[in-house]
Amino acid sequence: MVLVASTLLLGGCLSSVPGLKSGPPEWVNQPPPDTGRAWYGIGEGHDLNTARRLALRDIAAKFKVSVEGQTTSQISERNGRVDRGGSVKVSDRVEAVEFKNPVVEKTAPSPNGGVYALVRIDRLAFFQDLREKFNGAADQVSAATADLGSKTQVEQLLVLRRQDKTIDQAMGYYPLLQQGGLTEEDRSKAAQLTGVRSKSELITQQLVFVVRTAREHQDVADVVTKFLTDNNVKTRSDGGSASATVEATVKPRLDSVQGSKLVRLDVSLQVKDDRQQTVSGQNYVASGASLTSHDNARQQALNKLQDDLRKAGLINGLGFKVQ
Predict the structure, then answer these.
(1) Do the Cβ atoms of 137 and 42 come closer than 8 Å?
(2) Taking a C-beta distance cutoff of 8 angstroms, is the pair 56, 39 a contact?
(3) Span 235-249, average pLDDT
(4) Which of 269, 275, 297, 310 could bridge across to 288 with cysteines, CB 3.0–4.6 Å?
(5) Average pLDDT of the chain?
């Protein structure tokens, strides 16, 4: 969705436009060419707001052509209606571009009772606003990760993962900035952001977890261990040193109802860093049922726990707060 950040003021009204001609105005089929200072887009809708929004989408689609070099735009006229399309789906990044202060240059009624709109975007102002957003996001990440060296590996991972959303936003702006010309500062900040993302991936690979629980609940520990290894986290069971410990406390409940064997597992996971300080916790309730035995019902509960962990992902699954 292309966002419009300001209210447009139009002089005159559509009712003052002379009677309809047999086809659209010349500027609909041949809009002004884009320049180093402005982009132009054409939209048609049942009212002016809709036409303006579609004109901005038209600009965004052309912008995608410039960014990715893959989309081919096309214009066709059918019964007085202008159709514009592309061969490639517009990316989420370009669809989310915020065009500030769009100007409606011209309007005209369309033969089907709607309205055409020609919209202009100030190209220089757009890139200035984009660079301010990019710099703001990059500076936020830099400040948040400045003292990583004083933290444990688990703490470092949390700090880095808390920046994921901001890094995604900043790196989303970067390929758009390229179209306006990059500065050395832009390139430097992009490299720093990439380095932070790489650091997060490296620490995830370096982490070593030990999973502990009571002996009778080793099957729960096995589920948690598999969850960690599936997320590329190393585990060990030989009593050696580790980056963190996951302590699993399990409270089972067994019932029999109308011939069915029921098992409920209340599982509490606590994560401690290498200083044995608790850094996170998460609780799960996993239930299973079987017509044959409580053992089979427990296996169903374990399958449910495994599925819940998988859906949550590494950070949320272990109860880390990343917001």
Answers:
(1) no
(2) no
(3) 86
(4) 297
(5) 83
CB atoms within 10 A of CB 130: 19
Q: Which comes out higher in pLDDT, residue 292 or 238? A: 292
Closest CA to 259 of 302, 304, 292: 292
What is the per-residue pLDDT for 8? Answer: 39
Residue 7 has a pLDDT of: 37
* ∠ Cα 176 177 178 (to 5°): 90
Burial 76-98 (b: 16+ CB within 10 A, else e): eeeeeebebeeeeebbebbeebe
Residue 49 corresponds to which amino acid?
N
Using one digit for the tens of pLDDT, what is the confidence trace for 90-125? 344 555 567 888 999 999 999 889 999 999 999 999
CB < 8 Å & 24+ apart, contacts of 289-295: 289/260, 289/261, 289/262, 289/263, 290/260, 290/261, 291/259, 291/260, 291/261, 292/261, 293/261, 294/254, 294/261, 294/263
Distance CA(151)–CA(145), nearest Å, equals 10
| 270 residue type, one letter | Q
Of 111, 92, 103, 134, give the one whose Cα is nearest residue 38. Answer: 103
